[in-house]
Amino acid sequence: MTASESIKLSALTGKIQQALSNVFGDETYWVVADVTNHSFYAQKGYHYFDLVEKDTSSSAIVAKVSAVAWGNGAIRIREFEYVTGQQFRNDIHVLVKVAVSYHQVHGLQITLLDIDTSFTIGMLEQQKQQTLQRLLTECSDFIRKVGDRYITRNSQLSFGAVIQKIAVITSGNSAGFQDFRHTLDYNRFGYKFQVDTYFTVVQGETKAELVQQRLIDVYMSGVPYDAVVIIRGGGAQTDFLLFDTFLLGRAVAKFPIPVITGIGHQKNETITDMMAHSPTKTPTKAAELIIAHNKSFEDAVSGLQQTILIKAQQLFSEHYKALSALNAAVINQSRTVLQHHREILHGYHSLVSHGSRSVLQQHQHALLNLSSGILSRPRIVMAAKQNELQHLVANIRSFNRLYTQNKRGQLAHYDTLFKLMSPVNILKRGFAIVYAGDKIINSALPVNPGSPITVRLHDASLEATVTAKTPHDGTGTDL
């Protein structure tokens, strides 16, 4: 081949450009593909990425082409992100409108002109509806559907009168959790709360098991929580796929403690929201719901207090009127009774006055008679007693002489008797006194043969020794 037969590269690329322009020209195509290798240049608002098609059975890439979005394409991507809440990024499945072009320097280019938001939303919604149907089928004992509402075991639980002990499942660096705590801690009613945190990853469809495990940890803690709050900040649509999983939906539906969700998704309701007791849009709304629940209890108590005060005032007013009427009746009746008894007492007073005069006069006459008797009676008594005393004196004098003579005779008799009974006279009549040692004995019992004794006669004392002891009955001295 000679040099004259060759062409320049620019000529070749020009032919390619012309050929592709002739084939594709102003044609556009709606293409279903996955996004990979995405990069975004914020200063210019350009998106660079690859569109790929994967084999449904092996996930192997069967087609791949580079793509770019700028101008109207970039604007359509921003609209897509706003409507779906889904960030345009890697690994999302999209339906995009593209145009095919060829540049002599940059080569083959696929330019994104439009993106179908309903396709992406429909894909997610289809998966969501399949999951909901599975929950109704496999968990019919604690999940049922009434109209457009899902009735679960958790949604049928009742909050306590107040919510104070709260378990929070959230990520450790969640700004939503900080908003939740700030709303609770600085509530204008001054309510106090016990908040226990159970940190975990709350992003990514594959992390549902971690959130379920934290629910199990809450239950196994044994703490009597009033509510469990699941918190996550805002994010893209696919960031919330965790909360559309069968595993987490089932766990929340049958959880024995009321679950409040504050996932932070403003547009759509997740399956976890549908299964929970009280779904809210944001963590702040979840905190406000708790505060509002406690405030309703306080308002009910305040209302009851006000009702009691009103009823008490009404009862007091009614009873005050009744007491006032009763007081007036008592006063009037008392006056009547007092007047009646005053008249009776006046009659008794007159009767007592007249009766007293009569009784006093009677007793006065009696006292005068008694006084006369008392004055005359002592003279009679004194005269009688004087006669008795004179008679008694005469008798005393007479009997005194006789008494003295009689006593003198008795004394002479006793004097003679004492002289006869004197030991000296007794010893002179032949009696003796026997001593054993220095003691007088009147019985032979303490004396034994051989014992010394002293025998006292009226004129001498004899010292002797007992040679024999002969008992007798004491009749030898009988006269």
TrEMBL record:
Name any one Pfam family assigned in the record: tRNA_anti_2
E.C. number(s) listed in UniProt? 3.1.11.6
Cellular compartments annotated: Cytoplasm
Q: Which reaction does it catalyse?
A: Exonucleolytic cleavage in either 5'- to 3'- or 3'- to 5'-direction to yield nucleoside 5'-phosphates
Q: Name one GO biological process term.
A: DNA catabolic process
Q: Give Gene Ontology CC terms.
A: cytoplasm; exodeoxyribonuclease VII complex
Superkingdom of the source species = Bacteria
Q: Where is the OB-fold nucleic acid binding domain?
A: 8-115
| Primary location recorded for the protein, binned into one broad class | cytoplasm
Q: Which InterPro entries match?
A: Exonuc_VII_L, Exonuc_VII_lsu_C, OB-fold_nuc-bd_dom
Q: Where is the Exonuclease VII large subunit C-terminal domain?
A: 152-464
One example GO MF annotation: exodeoxyribonuclease VII activity
* Alphabetical keyword list: Cytoplasm, Exonuclease, Hydrolase, Nuclease
Q: Which NCBIfam families match?
A: xseA
Entry-linked PANTHER family: EXODEOXYRIBONUCLEASE 7 LARGE SUBUNIT
What is stated as this protein's family in its record? Answer: Belongs to the XseA family.
Q: What is this protein called?
A: Exodeoxyribonuclease 7 large subunit
Organism equals Chitinophaga flava
